[in-house]
Design goal:
Elements lengths: L3 H17 L6 H14 L3 E7 L2 E4 L4 E4 L4 E3 L1 H7 L4 E8 L3 H11 L3 H31 L4 E2 L13 H9 L7 E2 L5 E2 L3 E9 L29 E8 L2 E8 L4 H7 L18 E4 L7 H4 L4 H5 L2 E3 L9 E5 L24 E7 L11 H9 L7 H4 L2 H7 L3 E7 L2 E7 L7 E7 L3 E8 L4 E9 L9 H10 L3 H24 L6 E8 L1 H7 L20 E4 L12 E4 L9 H10 L8 E6 L3 E6 L4 E6 L20 E5 L7 E3 L7 E2 L1 H13 L20 H4 L2 E4 L2 E7 L2 E4 H25 L8 E5 H6 L2 H6 L11 E3 L3 H11 L1 H13 E4 L7 H8 L3
Parallel strand pairs: 10-14, 18-21, 21-23, 24-33, 26-35, 27-29, 33-34
Antiparallel strand pairs: 1-5, 2-3, 3-4, 5-9, 6-9, 7-8, 10-11, 12-13, 12-14, 15-16, 16-17, 18-19, 19-20, 22-23, 24-25, 25-26, 27-28, 30-31, 31-32
Helix pairs in contact: 1-2, 1-5, 2-5, 4-5, 13-14, 16-22, 16-23, 19-24, 22-23
């Protein structure tokens, strides 16, 4: 398929890239892998030449005769002189993806990485060859060709969906998911323009046109360096940056946290900074900023590309959040601890009794006990120093701690609920089964995106992405451990176990396992079983022989947090039909009783947590959390602070009120002022326009827009569709459900009346809804305190049957119906 010259070029470029990645590989390995890639490539290309289009520079759109359009000032600027536009997709097929994945699963990372790099070089060469062929043909007719433009670099990745549609990518086996990621992985989509007046700058590599300046595959020599001085909180940091680097990614890479929901994808408008000078600003960026902000040099970090020395002040720093940690009296278990600490007298050795130290320990504790190597290295010294009287901590059949006897036998554990947005941690005395302390914080991974798909995408598309997301969690957990120890006068070595729950993506990140395939069809996680490891294996700083346990997962989108919530609410032990609903960036639901349990997950998106809402916020101080138009003032804020934006419970209340007063109809449309009849005058007068779309003024500078209504419709439509399909699958009427457990932070703060009023939950369930707080945290505590409850959690995994909604024959119809109010 490939000439010797092409194969040699691939080898040379691959070797250069691997050297840049600090991979020391010999020529033989490159030769072998190049041959393997050639045998695996299933090369396919599809393209479309379009001459029937027009460009709307005001709206930054290239509109085709089908009504589809490419958008963004970057692509319009580069193609506005084109007479023809070529849209194309090139793929190497999925066999390379599978082989690379096989190597990684076998822990043969070197070979997997080499294969991946070589395949990428092949794809780059094939793309350039296609462009050269286009240019050669164009020049025969006196035309020139622009550069190739790829969605996802300086150009919004959403355009990838338009290219796939117009060329009909399915003909060559290329698919695109709801996060606009195409599969197979070794696939590119792109466009270029042809015309007499187009200009093409000379470039040597597609790397020149890519924003991923920190990419390990990057091959652009001689880049200019600039100094970026960043002021955040009370700190100042000077960062060296290459020309063209994206400011958002620079800040994230250097540990400077920004409020954002989209991971730098330019769709949330949250990562605000103040620059020391005025820079050009696009219409896309202007959409997120007020005229006053623009005048004051406020910019979004994700839109700023470095081309000079800059001084930057970070505005959107992490705010104090209202985080749910209360258990709402769910916790009632009999303790069956895995770990016990007791004071033990060890027989001193003599000339007449020369039994070894391990034997003496085993005799003292009366059991066939394992002792890890880490404790053997200084065992005689520990016993000698403490006059052979020590505190011994035993976990199951393993001694994990031997230290000086103390008046208090310190034995602690931590239950950890890792949510997409927040983290809640509970310190427990394992001997007494009592809570000692509670800690809560925002999940530091929010910097990389508000929802799991955005974070997975970040982990895939950034060379250090997985490490960054993993280490962000580990560093925060170690901060929590430090806080617990300092506040309660205990040592890290006194903490012997952590039980962690979370959704599948969070658990994968926690364990430093890529969740990549959770986001790619057929959406399969790397593991679903309970994981039990030494905490030190992933860098958690507790007792050196202490353990980390993660509860089992149900599927790619129903995780250990849901298992823990079922455990806490004892749904598997009741005769009554119960529905558990935990609504966050993903909606997890479990329906059933002791005889039958089914689960499903709906991609609600992050709208219920404020993301994707024009003035949306997490549950931080100043967020509007409840709204009632009949009261004065008609809204409240978290912490009774000045209103800064709207959180999830607030947006649900607002829509409920807009429906109640006839300002929004059942389709979600804002009515005109003339159509509104039942609203008081002072409420109706708040109907207005914001950024060219209908809106409702809540407070000066804070609006609910038509787009926001649509975001909530999409989110609640998915949840309601899931509930309706589950009742059908179980063969019951929704009225047969006796209890609804509304779990999680959003579930705790939302008004049940508002939830049923907008159809987030079936109206038939009104009056049956119980807000059960952080059930996931309660379940984690139960598994920490009782080995029987841990075994019950493991059994739940096999007892709960999962329904995949996306492939269910009724989902589309139910989803569309569920979008109506």
């Amino acid at each position: 398929m490939f000439s010797k010259d092409v194969a040699q070029r691939v080898k040379d470029l691959s070797l250069e890239k691997l050297k840049n990645m600090n991979f020391d590989v010999d020529q033989h390995l490159i030769e072998e892998a190049t041959t393997e890639v050639q045998n695996l490539i299933d090369y396919k290309m599809i393209h479309q030449v379009c001459d029937n289009f027009h460009i709307d520079e005001r709206k930054n759109k290239i509109i085709f005769k089908t009504g589809d359009y490419l958008f963004g000032d970057y692509i319009v600027k580069n193609l506005k002189e084109a007479e023809y536009i070529i849209l194309a997709i090139i793929t190497l097929g999925d066999r390379i993806d599978k082989r690379v994945n096989d190597y990684f699963l076998e822990s043969n990372y070197t070979k997997g990485m080499i294969l991946d790099v070589i395949a990428g070089v092949f794809l780059e060469i094939l793309t350039n060859n296609f462009w050269e062929e286009v240019r050669e043909n164009a020049q025969k007719y006196g035309k020139e060709v622009t550069d190739i433009f790829y969605p996802g670099n300086k150009w919004d990745i959403k355009n990838q969906a338009v290219i796939c549609k117009l060329v009909d990518s399915s003909k060559i086996g290329v698919n695109i998911n709801h996060s606009f990621i195409i599969t197979p992985q070794k696939t590119v989509s792109f466009v270029c323009g042809v015309g007499e007046n187009v200009k093409r700058p000379v470039k040597e590599s597609v790397c020149d046109d890519c924003e991923a300046k920190d990419c390990i595959y990057r091959n652009v020599p001689g880049e200019s360096k600039y100094k970026v001085t960043v002021r955040f909180s009370s700190n100042t940091k000077v960062i060296e940056a290459s020309e063209g680097e994206n400011l958002f990614h620079i800040l994230v890479r250097n540990g400077i946290r920004l409020n954002n929901f989209c991971g730098g994808s330019r769709i949330c408008g949250q990562c605000k900074v103040i620059l020391n000078e005025e820079l050009d600003i696009s219409d896309d960026e202007k959409y997120f900023l007020t005229d006053k902000e623009i005048k004051n040099n406020v910019r979004l970090a994700c839109f700023v590309e470095i081309d000079r020395d800059l001084e930057v002040k970070v505005l959107s720093e992490e705010q104090k959040a209202k985080i749910l940690t209360k258990e709402n009296n769910l916790l009632s278990i009999e303790s069956h601890p895995r770990i016990k600490t007791s004071t033990v007298d060890i027989g001193r050795p003599t000339l007449n009794d020369q039994g070894d130290y391990v034997k003496r320990i085993k005799e003292a504790v009366s059991g066939e006990i394992e002792i890890p190597l880490g404790l053997l290295s200084n065992l005689p010294e520990v016993l000698e120093e403490n006059d052979y009287k020590v505190n011994i901590t035993i976990r199951k059949n393993e001694i994990i701690s031997i230290k000086k006897a103390a008046s208090k036998e310190y034995n602690y554990g931590i239950a950890l609920d890792i949510g997409t947005t927040t983290i809640a941690a509970y310190l427990y005395d394992l001997d007494e089964g009592k809570e000692v302390d509670v800690y809560s914080c925002l999940n530091p991974q929010r910097t990389f995106g508000a929802d799991v798909i955005t974070r997975i995408t970040y982990s895939i598309t950034n060379s250090q992405g997985l490490y960054q997301l993993h280490s962000a969690l580990i560093n925060k957990i170690n901060e929590i451990v430090e806080e617990f120890c300092a506040k309660n006068s205990i040592g890290k070595s006194d903490i012997h176990e952590i039980v962690a729950v979370g959704n599948p993506t969070m658990i994968h990140f926690l364990l430093n396992v890529s969740p990549k395939y959770i986001a790619i069809s057929p959406y399969v996680p790397t593991f679903t079983s309970k994981i039990e490891i030494k905490a030190k294996e992933i860098g958690i700083d507790i007792n050196k022989e202490g353990y980390l346990i993660t509860l089992p997962l149900i599927s790619s989108y129903v995780g250990a947090d849901t298992v823990a919530a079922v455990l806490a609410n004892k749904i598997d032990q009741t005769d009554d039909l119960c529905l558990l609903v935990d609504i966050g960036t993903n909606g997890e639901m479990v329906l059933g009783n002791k005889d039958n349990l089914i689960a499903s997950s709906a991609a609600a998106g992050p709208a219920f947590e404020g993301a994707g809402i024009t003035f949306g916020l997490n549950g931080v101080e100043g967020a509007i959390d409840h709204v009632n138009f009949s009261k004065k003032p008609f809204y409240t804020t978290i912490g009774d602070k000045k209103a800064k934006g709207i959180c999830g419970s607030g947006i649900v209340d607002i829509i409920s009120e807009l429906l109640k007063y006839g300002i929004v109809d059942s389709t979600g449309r804002f009515l005109s002022k003339e159509e509104v009849k039942g609203a008081p005058r002072d409420i109706a007068e708040r109907m207005t326009v914001y950024k060219d779309e209908p809106a409702f003024l809540i407070e000066d500078g804070i609006y609910v827009t038509q787009k926001d209504i649509r975001q909530i419709q999409l989110a609640k439509g998915a949840i309601l569709a899931g509930i309706n399909i589950m009742t059908k699958e179980m063969g019951i009427d929704v009225n047969e459900i006796k209890k609804v457990f509304l779990a999680g932070g959003f579930g705790n703060y939302i008004l049940p009346e508002s939830a049923t009023a907008i159809g987030l939950l079936p109206k038939e369930l009104k009056g049956k809804i119980l807000q059960v707080g952080n059930s996931a945290g309660v379940g984690a505590i139960m598994a920490l305190l009782s080995d029987k409850e841990l075994e019950r959690a493991i059994h739940l995994q096999s007892k709960i049957n999962y329904i995949e909604l996306s492939t269910h024959e009724d989902f589309q119809n139910e989803f569309v119906k569920g979008m109506y109010f």
